[in-house]
From TrEMBL:
Tagged with keyword DNA-binding: no
Domain Glycosyl hydrolase 109 C-terminal: 184-346
Keywords of this entry: Glycosidase, Hydrolase, NAD
Family statement drawn from the similarity comment of this UniProt entry: Belongs to the Gfo/Idh/MocA family. Glycosyl hydrolase 109 subfamily.
Domain Gfo/Idh/MocA-like oxidoreductase N-terminal: 48-173
Gene3D superfamilies to which the protein is assigned, alphabetical: Dihydrodipicolinate Reductase, domain 2, NAD(P)-binding Rossmann-like Domain
InterPro entries in UniProt: Gfo/Idh/MocA-like_OxRdtase_N (IPR000683), Gfo/Idh/MocA_oxidrdct_glycsds (IPR050463), Glyco_hydro_109_C (IPR049303), NAD(P)-bd_dom_sf (IPR036291)
UniProt entry tagged with the keyword Translocase: no
SUPFAM superfamilies: NAD(P)-binding Rossmann-fold domains
Pfam family, one: Glyco_hydro_109_C
Region named Disordered: 453-473
Protein's name according to its UniProt entry: Gfo/Idh/MocA family oxidoreductase
Length: 473
């Protein structure tokens, strides 16, 4: 190899290593998919061997929920901290199951993938580990379920897509808000044409996490606070975009084509860092840092000329909201701040339908999945039941060889809002092009099946309360 060629390769490698700070890298035109994962039916798995990596806040809840799903064997647990692994091994055995293998340390997950046969790798680690773990998990022969987002750069989004297609392994981002009861209701309504063509939609993650971001114990080594320094954009778009994207058939009949983002200055985090550092030297490391602004507003346009607004604010003292707003040619729905539905056919003008009418619609349009498992999911728990409904649905699809509700193209597109918003904000609110991760397949991809056709046979183990009372689950 010539010296010029070696120098070129070194430069390419250097650029790849800074893809996060240069979000437009990876925007080049990609070839047609090696294999279309939309609607893909993987071979059935009678028993799903699951391994969890990351046993913090989200991982702990996930391990608990999976002990209630029949057809699941928890075969391995991994975390940086050995005591967490031991704690969760004991939890699983106390439930009456075989002790999972345990792995710890910064590289324990890599050893786990080499030594344990895994059907599903469930990732609950800090964001910057998601991509490498998802890719290595698929290459090791496992399907992947990963907490949001799947990647933090456009280049990594493309890489996850490529590996999923080449290995024919599912890579589902665990966007639990797609399984919220109202979001699922409006998804069914939109599929049935109740709102007509959805012209505009809105979603958000507005959640005051200021105290938790500066907590010494909630996020290991302040990892989430550090992300608010590293990225000046919409850090957490998927709770807002996921449900409305499904209602608008994004990647399955339409596709996002451009994005523009605007952001306020920071009015809270830098001040909080200074105030805490004056009393505790631990926080001195954050003094003088440039934090992302409070509110980021991102606007997206689709190929069919529809628009989506996604907001992100985790520092302002305001009520929690995901907005979840759908505005169509025949109707309107929103969840926050006031949950309501308005339909042109009911001639209710500018007002929401009365509750008795909404209840009639709820009875008619609640998806089969919710009717089948919704009340049971509430009893098991996880954000009011939507976490368990998501987990149960994933396992039921894997056991029956059914397509997943969220595929790798959804994971990539919804996650790409992070780096694209950073790019737009950094270029004074310039409009940027949105990659088509389906490579044109969106034109023929079909919407997600909301029925239980071919599945619905995965049973739920009973839940026993501390007082010995067994819930009817």
């Amino acid at each position: 190899m010539s010296s010029d060629r070696r120098d070129f390769i070194k430069k390419v490698s250097l650029l790849s290593s800074v893809a996060i700070t240069l979000p437009s890298i990876g925007m080049e035109v990609h070839a047609a998919p090696r294999f279309n994962m939309s609607g893909y039916r993987a071979p059935k798995l009678d028993k799903v061997r699951v391994a969890f990596v990351g046993l913090g806040n989200r991982g702990t809840g996930a391990v608990d929920r999976y002990t209630y799903i029949e057809g699941v064997e928890i075969v391995a647990l991994c975390d940086r901290h050995e005591d967490r692994v031991t704690k969760h091994q004991n939890f699983v055995t106390e439930k009456g199951f075989t002790k999972p293998q345990g792995f710890s340390g910064d590289n324990g997950w890599q050893t786990m993938l080499k030594e344990v046969e895994i059907d599903l790798l469930y990732i609950c680690t800090p964001w910057d580990l998601h991509t490498v773990m998802a890719i290595d998990g698929m290459k090791s022969g496992a399907h992947v379920a990963c907490e949001v987002p799947i990647a933090l750069s456009v280049k990594d989004c493309w890489e996850v897509v490529k590996v999923s297609e080449s290995t024919k392994k599912h890579c589902m981002m665990l966007e639990n808000c797609c399984y919220d009861f109202f979001e699922m209701l409006t998804l069914k309504m939109s599929r049935e044409g109740l709102f007509g063509d959805i012209i505009h939609a809105e979603g958000a993650y507005i959640h005051d996490l200021l105290d938790l971001n500066f907590s010494k114990t909630y996020y290991d080594d302040f990892w989430r606070l550090k992300e608010n320094i590293r990225f000046n954009g919409n850090l957490y778009p998927t709770h807002g975009i996921g449900p409305v994207a499904q209602c608008m058939n994004i990647n399955r009949g339409d596709v996002m084509t451009s994005l523009v983002a605007m952001q306020t200055n920071d009015f809270h985090m830098a001040d909080t860092a200074r105030e805490l550092a004056a009393k505790d030297a631990t926080f001195q490391q954050f003094v003088g840092k440039k934090f992302r602004g409070n509110m980021n507003t991102t606007l997206i346009r689709t190929e069919k000329g529809k628009t989506i607004m996604i907001q992100h604010d985790v520092t302002s003292p305001r009520p929690y909201s995901r907005i979840h707003l759908l505005s169509g040619t025949k109707g309107f729905a929103e969840k926050y701040p006031t949950q309501g539905i308005s339909l042109k056919s009911h001639k209710n003008g500018h007002s929401f339908l009365p509750e008795e009418k909404v209840e009639e619609l709820r009875e008619k349009y609640t998806p089969e999945l919710v009717k089948f498992i919704g009340e049971q999911a509430k009893k098991v728990g996880g954000h009011g039941g939507m976490d368990f409904m998501m987990d149960w649905r994933l396992i039921d699809c894997l056991r029956n060889g059914l397509p997943l509700d969220q595929d790798v193209y959804d994971a990539a597109a919804w996650s790409a809002i992070v780096p694209l918003s950073v790019e737009s904000v950094g270029k004074n609110c310039k409009t940027v092009t949105f990659p088509d991760f389906t490579k044109g397949a969106w034109r023929s991809n079909t919407p997600v099946d909301l029925t239980l056709n071919g599945g619905g046979n995965t049973k739920i183990r009973p839940k026993v309360e501390k007082d010995g009372k067994q819930l009817d689950v």
